[in-house]
Amino acid sequence: MPREALELVRRFVADGHASAAALAVVTLDDSALFAVGRRRSVRLDLRTGELRPSPAAAIDLDTPFDLASLTKPMVTLGLLARGIGDGSLDLEAPLARYLPAAAHSAMGEVPLRSLMGHGSGWPAWRDFAAVFDARGRAGRVRPDARSLRHDIEAAVLSTPPERAPGVAAVYSDLGYLTLGFLLEAQLRRPLDLAAFELLSALPVSTPPTYRRTPVGLTPRDGDAVATEIWPRRCLDGWPLQGVVHDDNAAALQGIAGHAGLFASVRGVAAWAREWLRAVCAREVALGGALLPEVADLLRGTSAAPDTTWRLGFDTPSRPHSNAGTLCSDATFGHLGFVGTSVFFDPARRAAVVLLTNRVHPSRDATAAIRALRPAVHDAVWRVLQVH
Predict the structure, then answer these.
(1) Which of 105, 119, 151, 322 has a 20 to 30 A CA-CA distance from 346?
(2) What angle in degrees, to the nearest 10, is found between the helix axes of 191-199 and 173-187?
Protein backbone atom coordinates (compact mmCIF):
# COMPACT_ATOMS: atom_id res chain seq x y z
CA MET A 1 0.00 0.00 0.00
CA PRO A 2 1.62 3.31 -1.01
CA ARG A 3 2.40 5.41 2.05
CA GLU A 4 1.27 8.59 0.30
CA ALA A 5 -2.18 7.12 -0.36
CA LEU A 6 -2.52 6.05 3.27
CA GLU A 7 -1.59 9.50 4.50
CA LEU A 8 -4.10 11.16 2.17
CA VAL A 9 -6.91 8.96 3.51
CA ARG A 10 -5.87 9.44 7.13
CA ARG A 11 -5.78 13.21 6.70
CA PHE A 12 -9.20 13.24 5.02
CA VAL A 13 -10.73 11.67 8.12
CA ALA A 14 -8.63 13.63 10.60
CA ASP A 15 -9.71 16.89 8.97
CA GLY A 16 -13.37 15.99 9.50
CA HIS A 17 -14.36 15.40 5.88
CA ALA A 18 -15.71 11.96 6.89
CA SER A 19 -15.88 9.91 10.06
CA ALA A 20 -14.46 6.84 8.32
CA ALA A 21 -12.61 5.74 5.22
CA ALA A 22 -11.22 2.52 3.80
CA LEU A 23 -8.84 1.85 0.93
CA ALA A 24 -7.91 -1.25 -1.05
CA VAL A 25 -5.30 -1.77 -3.72
CA VAL A 26 -6.26 -4.95 -5.55
CA THR A 27 -4.20 -7.06 -7.94
CA LEU A 28 -4.73 -10.51 -9.37
CA ASP A 29 -2.54 -11.99 -6.67
CA ASP A 30 -3.16 -9.91 -3.58
CA SER A 31 -5.05 -7.10 -1.87
CA ALA A 32 -3.67 -4.46 0.46
CA LEU A 33 -6.44 -3.17 2.75
CA PHE A 34 -6.65 -0.21 5.10
CA ALA A 35 -9.39 1.29 7.28
CA VAL A 36 -9.45 4.32 9.57
CA GLY A 37 -12.01 6.24 11.63
CA ARG A 38 -15.28 5.56 13.39
CA ARG A 39 -18.73 4.52 12.28
CA ARG A 40 -20.20 7.84 13.36
CA SER A 41 -18.83 11.12 14.68
CA VAL A 42 -21.77 13.46 15.42
CA ARG A 43 -25.49 13.84 15.92
CA LEU A 44 -27.71 16.92 15.74
CA ASP A 45 -29.02 18.46 18.98
CA LEU A 46 -32.56 19.39 17.98
CA ARG A 47 -32.93 21.74 20.95
CA THR A 48 -29.96 23.94 20.00
CA GLY A 49 -29.52 23.08 16.32
CA GLU A 50 -25.87 22.29 16.96
CA LEU A 51 -23.85 19.21 16.09
CA ARG A 52 -22.77 17.25 19.14
CA PRO A 53 -19.92 14.71 19.30
CA SER A 54 -21.32 11.20 19.22
CA PRO A 55 -18.42 8.86 18.39
CA ALA A 56 -19.30 5.26 17.63
CA ALA A 57 -17.01 2.24 17.48
CA ALA A 58 -13.87 2.25 15.35
CA ILE A 59 -14.24 0.65 11.94
CA ASP A 60 -12.24 -2.30 10.66
CA LEU A 61 -11.81 -4.08 7.32
CA ASP A 62 -15.19 -5.79 7.70
CA THR A 63 -17.30 -2.74 8.62
CA PRO A 64 -20.08 -2.20 6.05
CA PHE A 65 -20.35 1.06 4.11
CA ASP A 66 -23.34 2.27 2.15
CA LEU A 67 -21.97 1.87 -1.39
CA ALA A 68 -24.55 4.14 -3.08
CA SER A 69 -24.15 3.96 -6.88
CA LEU A 70 -21.51 1.23 -6.76
CA THR A 71 -24.70 -0.85 -6.62
CA LYS A 72 -25.03 -0.23 -10.36
CA PRO A 73 -21.90 -2.10 -11.49
CA MET A 74 -21.79 -4.57 -8.60
CA VAL A 75 -25.39 -5.80 -8.76
CA THR A 76 -27.31 -4.56 -11.77
CA LEU A 77 -24.49 -4.79 -14.29
CA GLY A 78 -23.36 -8.12 -12.84
CA LEU A 79 -26.79 -9.68 -13.27
CA LEU A 80 -27.14 -8.18 -16.75
CA ALA A 81 -23.68 -9.51 -17.68
CA ARG A 82 -24.76 -12.99 -16.66
CA GLY A 83 -27.89 -12.71 -18.82
CA ILE A 84 -25.91 -11.45 -21.80
CA GLY A 85 -23.40 -14.25 -21.36
CA ASP A 86 -26.00 -17.03 -21.25
CA GLY A 87 -28.06 -15.52 -24.07
CA SER A 88 -31.17 -14.72 -22.03
CA LEU A 89 -30.68 -10.97 -22.57
CA ASP A 90 -29.91 -9.09 -25.79
CA LEU A 91 -28.29 -5.64 -25.63
CA GLU A 92 -30.20 -4.50 -28.71
CA ALA A 93 -33.60 -5.80 -27.60
CA PRO A 94 -36.23 -3.26 -26.56
CA LEU A 95 -36.95 -2.78 -22.88
CA ALA A 96 -40.55 -3.97 -23.22
CA ARG A 97 -39.39 -7.43 -24.33
CA TYR A 98 -38.14 -8.10 -20.79
CA LEU A 99 -40.28 -5.68 -18.77
CA PRO A 100 -43.92 -5.94 -19.94
CA ALA A 101 -44.89 -2.98 -17.74
CA ALA A 102 -42.87 -0.79 -20.12
CA ALA A 103 -44.99 -1.67 -23.15
CA HIS A 104 -46.84 1.65 -23.10
CA SER A 105 -43.90 3.71 -21.83
CA ALA A 106 -41.92 6.10 -24.00
CA MET A 107 -38.97 3.83 -23.14
CA GLY A 108 -40.64 0.63 -24.29
CA GLU A 109 -38.75 0.45 -27.59
CA VAL A 110 -35.44 1.75 -26.23
CA PRO A 111 -32.73 -0.96 -26.32
CA LEU A 112 -31.10 -2.21 -23.14
CA ARG A 113 -27.79 -0.81 -24.34
CA SER A 114 -29.17 2.74 -24.11
CA LEU A 115 -30.32 2.26 -20.52
CA MET A 116 -27.06 0.62 -19.46
CA GLY A 117 -24.94 3.35 -21.05
CA HIS A 118 -27.03 6.33 -19.86
CA GLY A 119 -28.14 7.14 -23.40
CA SER A 120 -31.86 6.52 -22.96
CA GLY A 121 -32.86 10.20 -23.02
CA TRP A 122 -34.25 10.09 -19.50
CA PRO A 123 -33.40 12.85 -16.96
CA ALA A 124 -30.69 12.23 -14.40
CA TRP A 125 -32.99 12.01 -11.37
CA ARG A 126 -36.50 12.49 -10.05
CA ASP A 127 -37.57 12.54 -6.39
CA PHE A 128 -40.14 9.75 -6.51
CA ALA A 129 -39.89 9.15 -2.76
CA ALA A 130 -40.99 12.70 -1.98
CA VAL A 131 -44.04 12.41 -4.24
CA PHE A 132 -45.35 9.35 -2.44
CA ASP A 133 -44.39 10.71 0.98
CA ALA A 134 -46.34 13.89 0.24
CA ARG A 135 -49.39 11.84 -0.71
CA GLY A 136 -49.20 10.07 2.64
CA ARG A 137 -48.95 13.34 4.56
CA ALA A 138 -51.96 14.65 2.65
CA GLY A 139 -54.04 11.90 4.20
CA ARG A 140 -54.20 9.48 1.33
CA VAL A 141 -53.87 5.81 2.08
CA ARG A 142 -50.25 4.74 2.19
CA PRO A 143 -49.71 1.62 0.05
CA ASP A 144 -47.98 -1.41 1.48
CA ALA A 145 -44.40 -2.09 0.41
CA ARG A 146 -45.36 -4.20 -2.62
CA SER A 147 -47.87 -1.65 -3.86
CA LEU A 148 -45.42 1.19 -3.29
CA ARG A 149 -42.81 -0.65 -5.36
CA HIS A 150 -45.35 -1.07 -8.16
CA ASP A 151 -46.36 2.59 -7.95
CA ILE A 152 -42.76 3.80 -8.10
CA GLU A 153 -42.08 1.54 -11.08
CA ALA A 154 -45.10 3.02 -12.85
CA ALA A 155 -43.97 6.56 -11.99
CA VAL A 156 -40.48 5.90 -13.37
CA LEU A 157 -41.81 4.41 -16.59
CA SER A 158 -44.21 7.32 -17.11
CA THR A 159 -41.43 9.91 -16.83
CA PRO A 160 -41.07 11.61 -20.23
CA PRO A 161 -37.65 11.62 -21.88
CA GLU A 162 -35.74 14.87 -22.31
CA ARG A 163 -34.13 13.86 -25.61
CA ALA A 164 -34.20 11.07 -28.15
CA PRO A 165 -32.32 7.88 -27.21
CA GLY A 166 -28.72 7.72 -28.36
CA VAL A 167 -28.31 11.49 -28.82
CA ALA A 168 -26.29 12.11 -25.65
CA ALA A 169 -25.27 10.30 -22.49
CA VAL A 170 -26.68 11.79 -19.28
CA TYR A 171 -25.97 9.81 -16.14
CA SER A 172 -29.42 8.65 -15.04
CA ASP A 173 -30.65 6.85 -11.94
CA LEU A 174 -33.94 6.28 -13.76
CA GLY A 175 -32.28 3.95 -16.23
CA TYR A 176 -30.82 1.77 -13.49
CA LEU A 177 -33.99 1.84 -11.41
CA THR A 178 -35.71 0.44 -14.50
CA LEU A 179 -33.00 -2.16 -15.12
CA GLY A 180 -33.54 -3.34 -11.55
CA PHE A 181 -37.26 -3.76 -12.24
CA LEU A 182 -36.39 -5.58 -15.47
CA LEU A 183 -34.15 -8.04 -13.65
CA GLU A 184 -36.84 -8.83 -11.10
CA ALA A 185 -39.30 -9.53 -13.92
CA GLN A 186 -36.78 -11.57 -15.90
CA LEU A 187 -35.42 -13.57 -12.97
CA ARG A 188 -38.78 -13.84 -11.18
CA ARG A 189 -37.29 -13.09 -7.80
CA PRO A 190 -36.63 -9.99 -5.69
CA LEU A 191 -33.49 -8.09 -6.59
CA ASP A 192 -31.89 -8.59 -3.17
CA LEU A 193 -32.16 -12.38 -3.51
CA ALA A 194 -30.74 -12.31 -7.02
CA ALA A 195 -27.88 -10.10 -5.81
CA PHE A 196 -27.13 -12.45 -2.92
CA GLU A 197 -26.93 -15.40 -5.31
CA LEU A 198 -24.54 -13.47 -7.54
CA LEU A 199 -22.27 -12.03 -4.86
CA SER A 200 -22.17 -15.08 -2.59
CA ALA A 201 -19.61 -16.42 -5.08
CA LEU A 202 -17.09 -13.95 -3.62
CA PRO A 203 -14.53 -15.53 -1.26
CA VAL A 204 -15.46 -13.43 1.78
CA SER A 205 -17.30 -14.39 4.95
CA THR A 206 -19.75 -11.49 4.56
CA PRO A 207 -20.48 -10.73 0.90
CA PRO A 208 -21.98 -7.42 -0.24
CA THR A 209 -25.70 -7.38 0.41
CA TYR A 210 -28.81 -5.23 0.44
CA ARG A 211 -30.41 -4.35 3.77
CA ARG A 212 -34.15 -4.76 3.51
CA THR A 213 -35.81 -2.29 5.87
CA PRO A 214 -39.41 -1.20 6.47
CA VAL A 215 -40.28 2.05 4.73
CA GLY A 216 -39.45 5.02 6.94
CA LEU A 217 -37.25 3.15 9.42
CA THR A 218 -34.21 5.15 10.54
CA PRO A 219 -32.18 3.32 13.20
CA ARG A 220 -30.01 5.33 15.57
CA ASP A 221 -27.14 2.92 15.51
CA GLY A 222 -25.84 -0.18 13.82
CA ASP A 223 -22.78 -1.99 12.57
CA ALA A 224 -22.59 0.09 9.37
CA VAL A 225 -20.87 3.42 8.81
CA ALA A 226 -23.27 6.35 9.23
CA THR A 227 -24.14 8.70 6.40
CA GLU A 228 -26.12 11.93 6.50
CA ILE A 229 -28.22 13.70 9.10
CA TRP A 230 -30.88 14.23 6.45
CA PRO A 231 -33.73 16.38 7.83
CA ARG A 232 -36.42 14.69 5.78
CA ARG A 233 -35.72 11.30 7.35
CA CYS A 234 -33.70 11.99 10.50
CA LEU A 235 -36.39 13.59 12.63
CA ASP A 236 -34.58 12.76 15.87
CA GLY A 237 -31.24 14.30 14.88
CA TRP A 238 -29.39 11.00 14.53
CA PRO A 239 -27.75 10.18 11.18
CA LEU A 240 -28.83 7.49 8.80
CA GLN A 241 -26.96 4.38 9.86
CA GLY A 242 -27.57 0.89 8.59
CA VAL A 243 -30.26 2.01 6.12
CA VAL A 244 -29.68 3.25 2.62
CA HIS A 245 -28.93 6.95 2.13
CA ASP A 246 -30.64 7.30 -1.26
CA ASP A 247 -34.28 8.33 -0.78
CA ASN A 248 -35.67 6.54 -3.82
CA ALA A 249 -33.92 3.33 -2.81
CA ALA A 250 -35.21 3.78 0.76
CA ALA A 251 -38.77 4.05 -0.57
CA LEU A 252 -38.16 0.67 -2.23
CA GLN A 253 -37.23 -0.86 1.16
CA GLY A 254 -33.55 -0.32 0.43
CA ILE A 255 -33.54 -2.52 -2.66
CA ALA A 256 -33.07 -0.90 -6.05
CA GLY A 257 -31.09 -1.18 -9.25
CA HIS A 258 -29.28 2.10 -8.73
CA ALA A 259 -28.45 2.07 -4.98
CA GLY A 260 -28.89 0.10 -1.78
CA LEU A 261 -25.89 -2.23 -1.54
CA PHE A 262 -23.76 -2.37 1.63
CA ALA A 263 -20.29 -3.90 1.84
CA SER A 264 -16.97 -3.71 3.61
CA VAL A 265 -13.75 -2.77 1.86
CA ARG A 266 -12.84 -6.46 1.97
CA GLY A 267 -16.05 -7.34 0.13
CA VAL A 268 -15.65 -4.69 -2.57
CA ALA A 269 -12.02 -5.69 -3.07
CA ALA A 270 -13.07 -9.32 -3.60
CA TRP A 271 -15.59 -8.21 -6.22
CA ALA A 272 -12.98 -6.01 -7.92
CA ARG A 273 -10.60 -8.96 -8.22
CA GLU A 274 -13.27 -10.89 -10.11
CA TRP A 275 -13.37 -8.13 -12.75
CA LEU A 276 -9.57 -8.19 -12.93
CA ARG A 277 -9.72 -11.94 -13.49
CA ALA A 278 -12.14 -11.50 -16.38
CA VAL A 279 -10.42 -8.50 -17.99
CA CYS A 280 -6.74 -9.22 -17.35
CA ALA A 281 -6.44 -12.97 -16.79
CA ARG A 282 -9.20 -13.83 -19.31
CA GLU A 283 -10.89 -16.12 -16.81
CA VAL A 284 -14.57 -16.77 -16.26
CA ALA A 285 -15.33 -14.94 -13.02
CA LEU A 286 -18.06 -14.24 -10.43
CA GLY A 287 -18.96 -17.90 -10.15
CA GLY A 288 -19.49 -18.21 -13.90
CA ALA A 289 -21.56 -15.01 -14.24
CA LEU A 290 -18.86 -12.88 -15.90
CA LEU A 291 -17.30 -14.01 -19.18
CA PRO A 292 -14.18 -12.19 -20.43
CA GLU A 293 -15.81 -11.36 -23.77
CA VAL A 294 -18.86 -9.89 -22.01
CA ALA A 295 -16.63 -7.80 -19.72
CA ASP A 296 -14.87 -6.45 -22.83
CA LEU A 297 -18.19 -5.70 -24.51
CA LEU A 298 -19.51 -3.76 -21.52
CA ARG A 299 -16.42 -1.67 -20.87
CA GLY A 300 -15.87 -0.98 -24.58
CA THR A 301 -19.37 -0.04 -25.75
CA SER A 302 -21.04 3.36 -25.50
CA ALA A 303 -24.70 4.29 -25.91
CA ALA A 304 -24.18 7.78 -27.33
CA PRO A 305 -21.46 9.74 -29.16
CA ASP A 306 -18.80 11.84 -27.44
CA THR A 307 -19.17 10.34 -23.98
CA THR A 308 -16.86 8.77 -21.44
CA TRP A 309 -19.65 6.45 -20.34
CA ARG A 310 -19.65 2.80 -21.35
CA LEU A 311 -22.18 0.16 -20.34
CA GLY A 312 -22.19 0.37 -16.56
CA PHE A 313 -18.81 2.06 -16.13
CA ASP A 314 -17.23 5.44 -16.73
CA THR A 315 -13.84 6.04 -18.35
CA PRO A 316 -11.37 8.89 -17.71
CA SER A 317 -12.36 12.45 -18.56
CA ARG A 318 -9.11 14.14 -19.51
CA PRO A 319 -7.44 16.11 -18.05
CA HIS A 320 -9.42 16.07 -14.76
CA SER A 321 -10.47 12.51 -14.01
CA ASN A 322 -11.45 11.14 -10.61
CA ALA A 323 -9.15 8.25 -11.52
CA GLY A 324 -6.18 10.63 -11.53
CA THR A 325 -3.86 11.93 -14.22
CA LEU A 326 -1.62 8.86 -14.36
CA CYS A 327 -4.23 6.22 -15.18
CA SER A 328 -4.08 4.51 -18.56
CA ASP A 329 -6.65 5.08 -21.29
CA ALA A 330 -8.00 1.57 -20.55
CA THR A 331 -9.12 2.62 -17.06
CA PHE A 332 -12.78 2.22 -16.11
CA GLY A 333 -14.74 2.59 -12.90
CA HIS A 334 -17.62 4.16 -11.00
CA LEU A 335 -18.39 6.64 -8.23
CA GLY A 336 -20.94 6.62 -5.40
CA PHE A 337 -22.58 9.81 -4.11
CA VAL A 338 -21.82 9.15 -0.44
CA GLY A 339 -18.06 9.09 -1.15
CA THR A 340 -17.33 5.66 -2.59
CA SER A 341 -15.50 4.65 -5.77
CA VAL A 342 -13.76 1.86 -7.61
CA PHE A 343 -11.41 2.19 -10.58
CA PHE A 344 -9.69 -0.51 -12.61
CA ASP A 345 -6.52 0.05 -14.65
CA PRO A 346 -6.01 -3.03 -16.85
CA ALA A 347 -2.63 -1.70 -17.99
CA ARG A 348 -1.46 -2.08 -14.38
CA ARG A 349 -3.59 -5.19 -13.76
CA ALA A 350 -4.88 -3.46 -10.62
CA ALA A 351 -7.90 -1.78 -9.06
CA VAL A 352 -8.36 0.83 -6.33
CA VAL A 353 -11.35 0.79 -3.97
CA LEU A 354 -12.00 3.94 -1.92
CA LEU A 355 -14.88 3.98 0.58
CA THR A 356 -15.80 7.02 2.67
CA ASN A 357 -18.88 8.53 4.29
CA ARG A 358 -18.13 12.05 3.06
CA VAL A 359 -21.86 12.94 3.49
CA HIS A 360 -21.59 12.60 7.29
CA PRO A 361 -23.02 14.80 8.66
CA SER A 362 -23.94 16.73 5.49
CA ARG A 363 -23.81 16.32 1.72
CA ASP A 364 -23.01 19.99 1.17
CA ALA A 365 -19.20 19.89 1.21
CA THR A 366 -17.81 18.41 -2.02
CA ALA A 367 -14.41 20.01 -2.58
CA ALA A 368 -12.51 17.63 -0.28
CA ILE A 369 -13.72 14.39 -1.89
CA ARG A 370 -13.14 15.84 -5.35
CA ALA A 371 -9.54 16.53 -4.37
CA LEU A 372 -9.03 13.21 -2.56
CA ARG A 373 -10.08 10.86 -5.33
CA PRO A 374 -7.55 11.81 -8.03
CA ALA A 375 -4.79 12.31 -5.46
CA VAL A 376 -5.24 8.82 -3.98
CA HIS A 377 -5.39 7.19 -7.39
CA ASP A 378 -2.27 8.92 -8.64
CA ALA A 379 -0.46 7.92 -5.44
CA VAL A 380 -1.29 4.31 -6.23
CA TRP A 381 -0.71 4.40 -9.99
CA ARG A 382 2.69 6.03 -9.44
CA VAL A 383 4.08 2.91 -7.76
CA LEU A 384 2.42 0.25 -9.90
CA GLN A 385 4.15 -0.92 -13.06
CA VAL A 386 2.38 -0.66 -16.42
CA HIS A 387 2.43 -4.04 -18.16
Answers:
(1) 119
(2) 80
